[in-house]
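We both want to read discrete structure tokens more fluently, so let's practise on a single case. Would you supply a protein for us yourself, any chain you care to pick? Would you write everything just below, so we can both look at the same thing?
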Amino acid sequence: MAFRYLISLSLAVAVLADQTSHVSISLGGAPAVSHHSSSHHGSPSYRHQPTYHTQPSYHPAPAYHPQPSYEHQHEPAVPECAANTTKAWCLEDDHYPTYEIKHAAEYHYEKLLSLYADVADLNTELSVDRPNTLEEETYLCPSETAYVRPLRALNTEGKWRVVVNNIDAHYQTLTQTTRIEECLTSADACPLVPECYESKCLQKSVYHRFLVYDSYDQYFPFAIETFKLPASCACLLGAYTIDH
């Protein structure tokens, strides 16, 4: 009877332990060690992930104007500036390639400077110091004198060339000034010579060197060429004649 009671009591304890999932084990006189079990484990609590700021949106690079093209363009045999004049030079030119000459001068500055020094000494003291003032001079034939800086000119080979003038390169302005004198009554008799002398006003010229820009030369677009310009107006005297 007592044994049956013990078995019933053991079953009751086992059922109770299963329901509470609590088991106490006692070994000898040591205190019981309790183990708790659970059918479901709670999900671990993770720390909140930090919020990173998105990368800054960069503005697109500013749009720059395209650089002028340095490709060689066809040059007309006679430039526009010479269409309405009989002179062999142009002092004004709406199509003067200032930007292209400046770019080439900056790139070839050292070599260009040696050429420029060769022609810069041709400028007279008057043309440099007082380009707008002319000394009074008396000639036998009427003439017109000026100090000019041509932008284009006709060389001795009959070809129009671009003359390097008023170009800024490496903090220096490249200019070429020359003195010209044109007869106003060329081939007419000298007005101050007596009629008993055969006389004639004669236009005299000089060969002048200019530093020019040649857009067709891809390696070194500068050169020195020769130009024929009016230099003075002379009076040519002939033999003495007596008219009856």
Observations:
- The CA atoms of residues 164 and 212 lie 5 Å apart.
- Confidence is low (pLDDT under 50) at residues 20-41, 62-72, 125-138.
- Helices lie at 2-20, 98-107, 109-120, 125-129.
